[in-house]
Amino acid sequence: MKVSSVLIALAIAILAVSMWALANRPEAEPSWPERIQGFSFSPFQEGQSPLEKIYPTADQIDADLSLLQSKTYAIRTYTVEDRLFEIPEMAKQHDINVAFGVWIDRNWERNRADMEVFLKTAARSTNIVRTIVGNEVLLRGELTPEELTVYLEWARQELDIPVSTAEPWHVWVEHHELAEHVDYLAVHMLPYWEGVHIDQAVDYVVQKIELLKSLFPEKPIVIAEVGWPSNGRTRQSAVATPANQATFLRRFLDRAEKEKYIYYVMEAFDQTWKHVTEGAVGAYWGVYDVKRQEKFPFTLPIVPIANWTVLAGLSVVIALITFAILLIDSQTLGNRGRGFLAVLAFAVASVMVWVVYDYLHQYLTLRTVIVGMVMITGMIGVIVVLLTEAHEWAEARWIIRLRRPFQPVALADSELPMVSVHVAAYNEPPAMVIETLNALAELDYPRFEVVVVDNNTKERQVWEPVEAHCRRLGGRFRFFHEDPLAGFKAGALNFALKHTDPAAEIIAVIDSDYTVAPNWLLDLVPQFKDAGTGIVQAPQDYRDGTENAFKAMCYAEYRGFFFIGMVTRNERNAIIQHGTMTLIRRKVLDAVGGWSEWCITEDAELGLRIFEQGYEAAYVSQSYGLGLMPDTFGDYKKQRYRWAYGAMQILRRHWSKLTGRHRSRLRSGQRYHFIAGWLPWIADGANLMFNLAALLWSLAMILDPLHVDPPLVVFSILPLALFAFKIGKLVYLYRTRVDATLSQTLAASLAGLALTHTIAKAVLSGLVTRNKPFFRTPKMAGASALVKALAVSLEEIFLLAAMLGAATAIGKIHPMDTLDMKLWVLVLFVQSMPYAATLLMALISGFPRLPALLGDRRHRRAA
């Protein structure tokens, strides 16, 4: 590793650790009192739940009371189920008073039975100082105020101790009449649920207590619940963390002593069963965790993550390893590029360590473990794709010099090898093919032939004019019409190879719609002077990019691959060979067995086989030929489907050699580019699966809003981060490397997004099937009508409607008061953008007379 890389890594590591330290500065807060007034007390242990009728034993309850004996004067209970009605007598043995509660809901029969137990216990227990009939009954909408009043008056008639019911402050305000039937106000003060920021939370409690005092001057006020969760979803400005829980409670207890409040801290112990009724946050209100361990310091300064130094160190180690991997074989990368990768590596490592740490500090069930495994797998996948995209970004923008620049080679005419130019055609417009042949006839090259193979065209009027034109062009041009001929384009090219002049040393291939520059062969064939060169490749380029708006957008999208991706791949001799404007050494082509007829992207597969034999490829980013783009959006999609499906065919067939399990002469850089280069397409396939899962999850949120929360924030952050990064990369590189205008950049982005669903389907199909039929991209087919353009995009239109409909429905049904809810709706909107792009591209292609308003075309065509 270069000294500059070490210095960059050291500087970023210091910065990263400093950020960890800054986020975990100790904050001095008032100390916890030696003994507080009261705790809300639910003695359920891990694995126990009143919902499943699994209750704590007497010994477990007694142990909890023993733990609290020296820490509180009183406890508050909620139910008399099972043996929980015995808590007052057990608490008496530990010198603890009790605010005794009974649960009330719609079950009238159970209510009556529980009330009888409740009243009998309250009448005989001397340490019960107040009673609470029902907990948030009105808030839940289980009873009306009139129905609740019946139970309250029953208790007041039977007991000579104060009676109330527990509700949040705003319920007391809304049901002012309820105060007439209680002896005091049992008020819940939980500012987290109302989205109050931690710094305003205690003042918020005080303000609401003062409001209640002004409204009910004759009634004593008891804060029956006051607390803050240590984990859970962010609600507006309220963030649930152990540090915030400690901060709120220590500040509140200090203020409560000054204000002379009567209170019960919510709550003594974490109750894992509450995630069923209150969502994930319900399990984390305890001052002690489910193992009965303190969750935060009672007197020391509060640090958000107590062991942050360990996490910071771990993130630095992971970042350094990641950075070192990114810098393998990067001797030409400048310091700006190294700094960019270092910052990203440290940011990614820190986020990954924090996410895993945070997740492992939750109470894990089988469900959460499965969700966690999915989350971590998805996170790793997103990070890998993001880092490979970043690597290409850095090498496309900040290399100091090209390691494998195209160097012109001059040869005398007598040294130039003979070239056989192969043109495969199927049912192509004869005028177009004739134009291609005329351009070949103008080649400024001394020794070449042209072999035209028309395979399987049925109509004689299509191929016979081409045959006749070949005769007119002379003996260099030979025409073959074969029907039937198996193997699609690969079969036609293998047929041409068999009929090639034995003297030809170089095979050149162009598509039947390409008009080549006269100096194409003269400029590029001399590259084969190096005996190790097996391929010489020039980019695909197009001459109809100004025909209309649709083609202009397609043209803008194509340029990125040939003038960014291929240039970067060429640095490690890992270009994707494409089957036009390509030159191949004949003996190499013969040695590897010709074109593969099993693969629908036979050109890219051939290039990989040639690399596996140890040969070099030369790539020039200068254009030497201009072809025609697909005329319709449907054809554009089918072309990309073929490319993506073929890539998966290649990946599956060559996986053992790409991973090094089987021997080949591939170098590590070539293996990297062939795997990493297709990762974004694989990510599109995974993204489609994510979208389908997102719609199912959203449907559950719509149908059962009370019990189905939005996914964890990390599930929203991952796709949003990757989407933003990819768009940022595309815009930056198009502006700086492709020299595109802003309108061309936006057009490329839109056209690329419009193909996302097509690529995703091709990838998923290519991973599970083997043989999809070859699809020839029609040329000069005429633009489709609007209805036809929309018809080929029905899947995307349906998914767009589903995504937007789900986002709208969730926004109306659920309160948008939590960060995860807002992010999830944002995810649905963002994930719908590729489908919206598809719809827009379909509409544009349906109007072929829309002018191309994307600035000047900038062909890099040789003179």
Write the layout of secondary structure elements.
Blueprint: H1 3-23, E1 36-40, H2 58-68, E2 72-76, H3 87-92, E3 97-102, H4 108-124, E4 128-135, H5 137-140, H6 145-158, E5 163-168, H7 169-174, E6 185-189, H8 198-215, E7 221-226, H9 242-259, E8 262-265, H10 275-278, H11 308-326, H12 335-360, H13 366-397, E9 419-425, H14 430-441, E10 448-455, H15 460-473, E11 477-482, H16 488-498, E12 506-511, E13 515-516, H17 520-524, E14 533-537, H18 549-570, E15 582-585, H19 586-591, H20 602-612, E16 616-619, E17 625-626, H21 633-658, H22 668-676, H23 679-703, H24 713-736, H25 742-754, H26 756-768, H27 786-791, H28 794-813, H29 819-831, H30 833-845
Parallel strand pairs: 1-2, 2-3, 3-4, 4-5, 5-6, 6-7, 7-8, 9-10, 9-12, 10-11, 14-16
Antiparallel strand pairs: 12-15, 13-17, 14-15
Fold and architecture overview:
This protein is α/β, with parallel strands linked by helices. The protein is 51% helix and 10% strand. The chain has an eight-stranded parallel beta sheet with strand order 1-2-3-4-5-6-7-8. The longest helix is centred in the middle third of the chain and has 32 residues, at 366-397. The chain starts with a helix and ends in an 18-residue tail after the last helix. Residues 857-863 have low confidence and may be disordered.
